[in-house]
Protein: LysE family translocator
Amino acid sequence: MSPYALGGFVLALLPLLVTPGASMALLVRHVVDGGRRRALGVALGTATGIGAHALLAAAGLSALVMRSAEAYTAVRLVGAAYLIGLGMWTWHSVRRAPPTKGGKKSSEPRGRSVYGQALLANVLNLKAAAIYLTLVPQFVDPGGWVAGEILTLATVHALLTTAWLVGWSLVVDRSAHALRRERTRRMVARVSGAALVAVGLRTAAA
Structure:
């Protein structure tokens, strides 16, 4: 793969990368609740989802799903339902959180739970699949090792996404004192939940 193709892919990807979505909503929610350590679960889950889309694209399975109206609709609706459900859970999570010492509430999920939420949010996101069906082929040499080039671009995509999410986690964590006040935590939970529901509704309507 030529450096020009790689550079062109990065430039084309950046506008999509900085557009807020489900991963960003999850990141803000979890960092406010549990600090920067939870950002790793969100970033790794998202990166794994990117890798899954790349593998499916390399195997030609993504194209089959996108060409089948029934399969496309099924995946779209499952993804929408998951995001809407996750958004509703996020909205109510602070209220349900058990009290801890000192009377504060905590909604501490396990690291695997944070990772799993981010992974499913990405894998069930057809916008992410579309990147590997519309954008990536423009930078792949048909005469070369196509699968290898797709995975190379996916690695770059995953690294950039991880850096973007980790960078934002530092910004959010620096505002932790204000953001972790009970009233603010509730507001963040509701805004994050509403954002996830909105993404889910947009996915369902696509």
User: Anything to note?
Assistant: Confidence is low (pLDDT under 50) at residues 97-106. The chain has ten helices and no strands. The two ends are 33 Å apart (CA to CA). The longest helix spans residues 146-174.
